[in-house]
Specification:
Low-confidence stretches: 6-10, 215-222
Strand content: 5-15%
Largest sheet: 5 strands, antiparallel
Number of strands: 9
CATH class of the largest domain: Alpha Beta
Shape: globular
Structural class: alpha+beta
Distance between the termini: 41 Å
Strand order of the largest sheet: 1-2-3-5-4
């Protein structure tokens, strides 16, 4: 069990931990407060749970977000949080902040995200509630100065696949024909993304970033979960967040259920007045922006291992190749990419696995 003395001994070797503990105790007025790690994410932020007296003799729980200013400025998070809250989206409440130091005190929404609680039995209900929050988010008019999910950004993300996964992770030397094959596929995907109606896009609207707010907490949302990890929001393709929700990075669903959920989203988005195209066009848009996202995430997961020393994410890469296998055969424009993956990438993966097992 953590104690103030144990925290002090630990902090002696970690200046950031010492600053975090000191700020927490000062802002809570509790000299015995001990932040205990609650979670981390793929970036540089970390989250710490603190139990402190609530003034009535009971303990309350709060969360400290630690966002080191030299690595991850907290201002974009605060800005997008305010934007989402203004549109009725349920977001974590901010109780105190020190922007320059990179510390926020947040309400504690509990320990479980959708990823922890969703299963085949409750998925319909939870996803219906998630759609409610997503529609609120997409209805918000993007500020004029928010970044566009433009050609440069889309291309930069796609190239993470060949640079970090094919290059750094698999050690592949791509020849001119390989690079042209990838470039042709990337340009097709970019063109399709830019042709979609453009709305506010979360960019990581998936179960791990949704929290089923527990009864008894302040301002409980009756029609959807709390939304997390929204600081990278942009103006972009309307199908991006729906496909991120149903073709998740960390769990997979039968394709038939994904189709049903996408159709439900389309029906509700149409009723909400969002600029969704006719259903058949929307389903194709979702598949293709999904391909862009799957390639990007494969590259990001490789980068997390080789640059950031976070190897656990690579275990989910096969899930994304499964998603690609479902979609690529249906698009003649992506047959070159499909052949490249089948005849070059997958053999390289098997060779790497064989070396690791030897």
């Amino acid at each position: 069990m953590s104690t103030p003395e144990a925290a002090q001994n630990s902090n002696a070797h970690d200046p950031r931990a010492a600053a975090r503990t000191a700020w927490t105790r000062q802002v809570l007025g509790d000299p015995d407060a001990v932040p205990v790690r609650a979670s981390t994410d793929a970036g540089f932020r970390s989250y710490w749970r603190v139990h402190t007296p609530d003034g009535s003799g009971l303990l309350k729980s709060v969360i400290v977000m630690d966002s080191p200013p030299d690595k991850e400025d907290v201002r974009p998070w605060l800005r997008i949080r305010a934007l989402l809250e203004s549109g009725g989206v349920r977001v974590p409440g901010v109780l105190a902040q020190d922007v320059d130091a990179g510390f926020l005190l947040l309400e504690d929404l509990g320990a479980d995200t959708y990823l922890n609680v969703i299963d085949s039995g409750n998925a319909d209900m939870l996803f219906d509630q998630a759609i409610s929050q997503l529609l609120k988010l997409q209805t918000i008019t993007p500020p004029d100065d928010i970044a566009d999910y433009n050609e440069a950004m889309l291309a930069r993300e796609l190239r993470l696949f060949d640079e970090w996964f094919c290059g750094h992770h698999l050690g592949m030397n791509l020849d001119r024909e390989d690079l042209q094959t990838l470039e042709d596929a990337y340009q097709f995907l970019i063109h399709c993304a830019l042709a979609q109606p453009q709305v506010l896009v979360h960019r990581d609207f998936m179960p791990r970033n949704l929290m089923p707010v527990q009864a008894g907490l302040a301002d409980v949302a009756q029609d959807g979960p709390a939304v997390l990890d929204f600081q990278d929001a942009v103006r972009g393709p309307i199908a991006y967040d729906p496909i991120s929700l149903f073709k998740d990075a960390f769990l997979s669903w039968p394709p038939q259920r994904v189709t049903i959920w996408l159709e439900l989203y389309h029906t509700r988005a149409t009723a909400a007045g969002l600029p969704v195209p006719p259903l058949a066009q929307f389903m194709g848009d979702a598949e293709l922006i999904g391909v862009q996202r799957h390639l990007k995430v494969i590259g990001i997961f490789a980068r997390l291992q080789h640059r950031d020393n976070k190897p656990k994410y690579l275990a989910d890469v096969p899930r994304f190749f499964g998603y690609l296998d479902e979609v690529l055969p249906h698009y003649p424009q992506l047959q070159g990419l499909q052949r490249f993956i089948e005849h070059k990438v997958k053999p390289a993966i098997k060779q790497l696995q064989a070396v690791a097992q030897a």
